[in-house]
# Entry
Amino acid sequence: MKRVLLINPPRNLRNPNKQFIAPPLGLAYIASFLRQYNYEVKIIDAVAEGFENVEEVEEGVYKCGLSWNDLGKKIEAYKPDVVGISCILLLGLTM
# Structure
């Protein structure tokens, strides 16, 4: 059985007070499909798991979610064969 890890990575925002959590439905759909074919699938939602973590990465831009170090530890602990990472572009980081 292949181990698949799907990741909703931390996100960058201009205003950390407008941070929100939305279920990563796209990853959930993919996980559901793969499980039908006997893949072992785990989803890491770095935004939800690290909701309290807000770090200014450059002037006026804040990373919200798990630290890259914590995310790396979770990836290493699961030992996946395949990793998929979602990518949502917030054009201009207007939020």
